[in-house]
Design brief:
The complex is a heterodimer of chains A (319) and B (378). With 319 residues, chain A is an alpha+beta fold. Chain A is built from 9 helices and 10 strands. Chain A folds into 3 domains: 68 residues, no CATH class; 128 residues, Band 7 domain (Tetrahydropterin Synthase, Chain A); 72 residues. In chain B, a hairpin with a 2-residue loop joins strand 2 and strand 3. The chains are: A alpha+beta (319), B alpha+beta (378).
Chain lengths: 319, 378
Amino acid sequence: METDMKQVAQFFLAGLVLLAVVLIYDGFFILEEGKQVVITQFGAPVGDPVTDAGLHFKMPFIQHTEIFEKKILIWDGEPNQIPTNDKTYVYLEATARWRITNALKFLQAVRTEATAQSRLSNIIDGTLRDMVNKNNLIEIIRSSDWSMATMSETTDPGLVGGKPVNGRDQITRQILEIAAKITPQYGIELIDVMFKRVNYIDSVRLKVYDRMISERKRIAAEKRSTGEGLKAEILGTVERKLKEIISTANKEAVTLKGKADAEATKIYGEAYAQDPDFFAFQKTLESYRETIGGNTSLVLSSDSDLYRYLKTVDPKPGK
Amino acid sequence: MTNQDQQPPWGKKHKPQTPEEVVAQLINKLQDFFTDKKNPPPPGNGQEPARPTSPFANIGKLLTVILIIIVLQGVYSSFFKIAPSEVGVILRFGQYSRTTPSGLHFKIPYIDKLYKVDVENIRMEEFGFRSRTPGQQSMLDKRGFDMESLTLTADTNVINVAWIVQYKVADPYSFLFIVSDVKQAIRDISESVTRRIVGNMDFDYLLSNRDLLANSVKAELQAELDGLFPKGTPGVSITTVQFQDINPPDQVKPAFNEVNEADQDMKRLVNEAQENYNRVIPKAAGEAKQIIEEAYGYQAQRVNDAQGETQRFNDILAEYKNAPEVTRTRMYLETMKEILPNVQTVYVIDKNQQSPIPLLNLSSPGLSTAQPKQQQER
């Protein structure tokens, strides 16, 4: 009898322990960093979502946990073929970062991340399409911090253009602003939206390649022509310098010679002026020496000083 | 043997000698343990023969075994080793507790959870190309490769860019728990930032400013990423952004090469002209000096000649003045003496001969009979 009682007590105790263990196991749950949870009771959410990591309690069995990411998630859009305002077709691929800020709403509105991603696609793609449609291509390529400093001189002046009115960064900001107004109803906060890739569609790209080729050919022709021009210029300089150098030298040489002649004239003049008759006499004799040569015939009077004595010894000539 | 040592609760009377014996004994004991307790315990295991035959006895034993296994596993998992380049992030009840450096550490089993993060390893992402490592297929994915590398420039041209981003974990907690896919976030933001900055530069500027581009991308990428993490604890730090390739697309490359050729042509033409210049001008400069030097020479000669001649004249004049008549005559006669031998024919005509001068045949001296006085000189 006593053993029976003991057995029952033991049975009861064991049952209690087991129950306690199961209750504790199902009642406590661990919420890890980077996660958040909504507690549901028979499918209906109870209380505020739990966002702090740690050990938490819920009613065992009747309450369940729906765990969601608290981390920042990534939305990657599909490439969209969109015409810009100036009718250029571009492939545009956007990316966004988002997180679940209200797990309760998230649970009620979209429930899973996959659904959320497709909702985001609808919202962002639509907004993006509108914004791209409204803007010219240059607005999507350049940002508001564009400046002439990052353009080179060789670029075709027709393509230099100017500062964008909005710019890529402003357009993405506008997309974010518009889309971020819609997402809170899903418990989602949109953190940023960026254009990941912007490219021409294939047919446009081929045309752009053609344009780039012609542009390069233009630059090549310009370079060749510039080369020819520079060469001609240098050759011209050579001619000029050559003439300058030689004529300057000639000028100096002639001047020098002139001065030399003048000096010589002065020297001669000063010397010969002492006795012009003697100079004439001497110079005449000198010139005889030089001018009267082998094939000359001379006719001289017998009265001349040289032949005078042929006729007479009288020193007085009868001149 | 350790296995054997760790199974004490139902006692061990016999020390088993061989592994076979150990196994046999173990199987035996387990069989005994789970068989109906109404059977008498086998000899050697009769430690508790007086135990009451309660239905919980078996369950109790089962629980004990489970408990032991749990304890063993707990002890085993409570020690952990962190490699030198890693840190361990420990969560207690899922909540961040501490970060441990490398070495051997202890954690509370089942309550603490460990994440290992390699904080020294430089991680790398490639854009617009993939390293040719064995087994990697990405290189073959030409289309994906194109879409990743083709970028629009500010002058609405298309350029091919390929670059790498290297980063490492900065704050392990942020790295683990703030962004769900850090690698993808880096890839997306890196592409976005690169395209944004490339979109601000025109084609030719890009080709010659790759360093500037890399620096701008690095700074902006880091700033964008920092924006995702809580202030002051960035999850990653970008160590390098390097542009491998900034090239025109393949279809346009020949045209670019033509520009390079034209550039070379231009330089060649200029060099040719310079060569001509260098060949002509220094020579001309030398020639100019020659002309001037010659003029100086002329000057010296002219002045010296004049000085010499006048000196001679002066000297002669000084002597002449002493005896003018004699000197004159002497000079005259000397000159004549010098001249006349060189003269072909000299005719001396008498002044008093009134008759007209007879005909002279100057060229034939033999016929000169009419000449009264003729002096033939040699």
